[in-house]
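Progress note, project year one: complex with guanosine-5'-monophosphate.
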Amino acid sequence: MEKDCLFCKIASGQTPTEILFEDDQLVVFKDINPAAPVHLLIVPKKHIRSINDIAEADLPIIGQMHWVAREMARQHGVSSSGYRLFTNVEKGGGQLIFHLHMHLIGGWK
Ligand code: 5GP
Ligand code: ZN
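Model obtained:
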């Protein structure tokens, strides 16, 4: 838990947000400013700043993020139509919230 980190606050329940999925490692919630009809954020509970900061011990979290993304895509009806998964890394990569997260977007007609 990092002080003043928005996604730490959401993941720990300090900032009320509708949580679509939760397990011991991750939470999933909707992006507040959706770029597509389905726009979810898959967020580890552990504070990791970006992909640059993952340690070997964090690899199960990265695997779980993809596993849960696959399940969220199915639940939101975009598995067969298709979707994008992406992670922005640092300012030059478009990262605005410096707590690791993966975007899942899809659902275009
Ligand atoms: P980034 O650019 O860091 O990869 O993406 C951060 C995302 O977080 C943006 O798409 C932005 O709309 C979303 N976001 C920022 N603040 C909040 C918030 O308070 N709640 C939710 N649900 N999403 C947020
Ligand atoms: Zn954080």
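Helices lie at 6-11, 59-75.
Residues 83 and 106 are 4 Å apart (CA to CA).
No further modelling is planned for this target in the current period.
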